[in-house]
Amino acid sequence: MSSITEFVPGIRYVGVNDRTKSLFEGLWPLPQGVSYNSYLIIDRKTALIDTADGAFTDRFLANIEQALEGRRLDYLVINHMEPDHSASIAAVRRSHPEVTLVSNAKALAMVEGYYGICDAVLEVKEGDTLSLGERSLLFRMTPMVHWPETMMSYCPEEKILFSGDAFGCFGALDGGIADRDMDTDRYWDEMVRYYSNIVGKYGSPVQKALEKWKGTELRAICPTHGPVWTEQLPRVAGLYDRMSRYECEPGVVIAYGSMYGNTEQMAEELARRFAARGIRRIAVHNLSVSHVSYVLRDIFKYRALVVGSPTYNGGIYPPVAALLEQIGERNLPPRPFACFGSFTWAGTAARRIAAWAEGVKWPVCAAPVEFRQGYDRAKAAGCDALVEAVLAQME
Ligand code: FEO
Questions:
Q1: Whose CA is nearest to atom 3 of ligand 1?
Q2: 220-223 and 160-164 strand pairing
Q3: Contacts of 191 (CB under 8 A, 6+ apart)
Q4: HEC-encoded secondary structure of 333-355
Q5: Given pLDDT bands bounded at 50, 70 and 90, which one contains residue 325?
Q6: pLDDT band for position 1 (50/70/90)?
Q7: What is the pLDDT of residue 133?
Q8: Residue 190 above 70 pLDDT?
Q9: Would the CB of 82 count as within 6 Å of ligand 1?
Q10: How far is the CA of 237 from the centre of ligand 1 (A)?
Q11: pTM of the full predicted structure?
């Protein structure tokens, strides 16, 4: 095997890249593709960890055959049942009828529910181990990272954690598998976007999972998406810890909708005023253009949020309402929040955004700034008070 795919002797990467799918889960853009990672441990017994998306089953099976080099496949360990990792389970069983499926009770029930397989399975519980020969696997349950059946598997002899979705990111693997064999720059923002889009609702379960592995010696983390983390393991562990504690950098997201550019001009004015007050990290998103996926990423990165909307059909402009719904689903703790808007004959949008904020327990820190019809600087008079109130809460 090449040293690129056999990134640790006896542990081989057999995953696949997906550069075809445009929306992950039918929702989240994949401009740089995504990888479905799977790993094969070669010992006295052989063990495959997770499988791959059903669109790539043939390619995935070919990778397994090549990596097995004629050996039989003894175990398939299932850490997570979301079909981007489980959809090739039935094909693996057909190709290797001798294989025993290893997972917890919740996952095995899903294997039957999704794929009708319930024979030759081995149920494992928290703290159980499976000997492979020189190496073994230790299993810990990590529910809601990011489904209820998720678990992680640890090889103590190699000090390698097979972490499922945790520590994963969007972005195909362009050659290298481990971080030491590539330039990882492009993955960091994609890790925040992956986390905020897919796992962001489950900060508390992620913290509980991290707690379970605290003090465990780690040489590599092998997630189901993105690079294997070796050299940059402390950075990725720190980032995951901060994201799951909803810790943000000092900065402001200004997210707005605008039909004819009037609300947009107030967004620009607010951005200038934040910059003039020394804020260096400002992300401005026109919600008719920016996919909500990127806006959520920046909301997880930066501490304050200011939302603007014109009044539309007597309410909030639809792309703005869609963002608020996505934020509400993610259990984000309160943060400095303010809103603004415009209207032509009856203003309701800014008031409704403020009511939404009260509903998710993010009280607005300044009176909404709302103006009638065309924008001019005189109508931005309330912006200073809004900026100062947000800055006061950021301290
Ligand atoms: Fe990559 Fe939750 O599956």
A1: 82
A2: parallel
A3: 167, 168, 169, 170, 226, 236, 239
A4: CCCCEEEEEEECCCCCHHHHHHH
A5: very high
A6: low
A7: 98
A8: yes
A9: yes
A10: 18
A11: 0.96
Domain residues for 33? 11-244
End-to-end CA distance of the chain: 54
Per-residue pLDDT averaged across 21-35, rounded? 98
Report if residue 4 sits inside a domain. Answer: no
Q: Are the CB atoms for 49 and 77 separated by under 8 Å?
A: yes
Task: Tell me, in angstroms, the distance from the centre of ligand 1 to residue 84's CA.
Answer: 6
- Does the beta carbon of 84 lie inside 6 Å of ligand 1? yes
The share of the chain scoring above pLDDT 90, in percent, equals 98
Domain boundary among 244, 275, 305: 244
The Cα-based distances of 210 to 37, 48, 241, 242 in angstroms read: 21, 24, 8, 11
Does ligand 1 lie within 6 Å of residue 80's CB atom? yes
Compute the mean pLDDT over every residue in the chain, rounded to the nearest whole number.
97
- Do 217 and 310 lie in one domain? The reply is no
Q: Are residues 86 and 118 in the same domain?
A: yes
244, 264, 283 — which closes off a domain? 244
Q: How far is the CA of 150 from the centre of ligand 1 (A)?
A: 10
Q: Is the CB of 93 under 6 A from ligand 1?
A: no
Reported residue count of the chain is 395
What is the pLDDT at residue 395?
A: 82
Ligand 1 centroid to Cα of residue 276, in Å, is: 42
Q: Is 3 within the bounds of a domain?
A: no
240 and 265, same domain (yes or no): no
**Quick check: CB of 163 below 6 Å from ligand 1?**
no
Asked, for residue 309, whether it belongs to a domain, the answer is yes
- How many distinct structural domains can be found in the chain? 2
Residue 193 in contact with ligand 1 by CB distance below 6 A: no
> What is the tens place of the pLDDT at every residue in 291-312?
999 999 999 999 999 999 999 9
Task: Kindly give the number of the ligand 1 atom that is closest to the alpha carbon of 225.
Answer: 1
Is the CB of residue 85 below 6 angstroms from any atom belonging to ligand 1?
Answer: yes
CA 18 – CA 15 distance, rounded (Å): 10
For the residues 332-358, what does the mean pLDDT come to? Answer: 96
Whole-number Å distance, alpha carbon 382 to ligand 1 midpoint, is: 45
How far does residue 131's CA lie from ligand 1's centre (Å)? 26
Cα–Cα distance measured from residue 95 to residue 66, given in angstroms and rounded to the nearest whole number = 13
- C-alpha of residue 85 to centroid of ligand 1, in Å: 7
Ligand 1 center–CA 25 separation, angstroms:
9
